[in-house]
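step=encode ok
step=design start
structure_in=
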């Protein structure tokens, strides 16, 4: 099971029409663009997918569309997390909602600011009811609450269905500590495009990427090369993408990646409030970078 999530996963965006409705046609186009680009798996309804601004009905329709478009060609991970533990547990009990889903990605509780014991108990409660493998998601920049290496390792060792962590803390020392002491089959996955190469070099299993929405071929190949120990080849692709990655996040995510996808004629750049489109300086920089990308 765990080998399904080695390499490049993509946190797919949710395309919107200009009237803010979900653009299912562009979603189908995006899925085929990603699979054609060679990515290993897809993550639907994550942060990049603007899941917090989607209704329950929209979420169901989006998942159904992604399942249909994917057609079992690659594994699918479903974003299912939040700061209400019981609500997540209740969702997990509806087994029919998880047909054709291979794992869940569950973000650490935000806003509540739980202690490490609270974070541990949150994931313990989820692990006890989940019939699917669980990928922890540590992103302190959004949750204002770090999952420490000690908490991650405790969860990894005590629960067989907690199979990985998407680490987006930006703390390489913390990531290395997890990699050094983790169970052999537990995966550490980069949650930061810019740090994927060094994290994999340290022993991470791959990445859940944003930039790969636009450039799946180059980014997934970079990840494969560094996983194979081919440092020079990986470096070449890494540095080909670094300027674009930097600009993608200049005005927040997913505004940047949606601007690039519009330039590539995959979907338009509409985001839902409270997010707004990138500013004119970032738009101009992205236009120049995409135009010069070869």
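sequence_out=
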């Amino acid at each position: 099971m765990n080998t399904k999530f080695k390499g490049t996963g993509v946190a797919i965006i949710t395309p919107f029409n200009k009237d803010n409705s979900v653009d299912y046609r562009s979603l189908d186009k995006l899925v085929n663009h990603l699979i054609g680009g060679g990515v290993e798996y897809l993550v639907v309804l994550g942060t990049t997918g603007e899941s917090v601004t989607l209704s329950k009905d929209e979420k169901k329709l989006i998942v159904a569309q992604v399942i249909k478009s994917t057609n079992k060609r690659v594994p699918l991970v479903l974003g299912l997390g939040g700061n209400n533990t019981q609500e997540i547990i209740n969702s997990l009990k509806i087994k029919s909602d998880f047909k054709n889903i291979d794992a869940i990605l569950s973000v650490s509780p935000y806003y509540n600011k739980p202690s490490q014991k609270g974070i541990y108990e949150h994931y313990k409660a989820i692990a006890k009811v989940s019939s699917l493998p669980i990928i922890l998601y540590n992103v302190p920049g959004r949750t204002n609450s770090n999952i420490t290496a000690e908490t991650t390792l405790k969860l990894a060792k005590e629960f067989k269905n907690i199979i990985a962590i998407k680490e987006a803390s930006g703390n390489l020392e913390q990531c290395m500590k997890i990699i050094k002491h983790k169970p052999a089959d537990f995966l550490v996955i980069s949650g930061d495009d810019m740090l994927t190469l060094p994290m994999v070099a340290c022993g991470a299993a791959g990445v859940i990427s944003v930039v790969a929405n636009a450039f799946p071929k180059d980014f997934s190949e970079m990840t494969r090369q560094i996983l194979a120990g081919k440092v020079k080849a990986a470096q070449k692709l890494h540095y080909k993408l670094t300027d674009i990655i930097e600009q993608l996040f200049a005005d927040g995510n997913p505004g940047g990646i949606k601007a690039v996808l519009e330039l590539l004629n995959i979907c338009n750049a509409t985001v839902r409030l409270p997010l707004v489109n990138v500013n004119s300086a970032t738009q101009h920089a992205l236009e120049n970078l995409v135009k010069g990308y070869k």
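step=design ok
step=annotate ok -> Residues 85 and 122 are 6 Å apart (CA to CA).
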